[in-house]
Sequence to fold (190 residues):
Amino acid sequence: MKTKVKILFLIFAVVINCLGGIFIPQTAIPLYMDSILTIAVTACCGLWGGILCAVLSNGIMYLFDYTMLPFVICHILTAVCSTLVFRKVKVPENLETEFLTIEAFLWAGLWAALANAVSGNILVDILFSSQSDRMNTATPVQGLYIATKSLFFATYLSGLLTNIVDKLISAVISFWAYKFFSCNDMHKFV
Fold:
């Protein structure tokens, strides 16, 4: 992939991440969707591209008061976990005609979800005493709390389940974005 295409893809991914992170929390859907294309950027641009995508996405959302800076750790972990998975799977010899598989993206999403659940739940526990003020993520915690009577357990289980769904959706979207931006005909657009 050419450098110009990588830069355009990075900018596109940051915009999509920010839009997802801003608009999904306004709904009743208990997802974050602030790292929709981070896995794809990591696949196309490597670890540092993924980290740059994470920092820019969270930095912009922080400037507009949609997230807190400590949560950039979760987003960076998405890039790190994706990199580890992509290094572990067999990378195609010719990236111009062969692609990483959907399975690699799903594994990247799953490992990112686990890392995000642990780090995000620890941050919520430290910063908010396990009581997040985000309506879309507070509702599942409240439901689990009523059933279990343990705020700690409800926070961690809700965070795990929410992150798994969030990152697997992001992994599938990232896979298709990766395939689109990695195809041979992309040079026509630059």
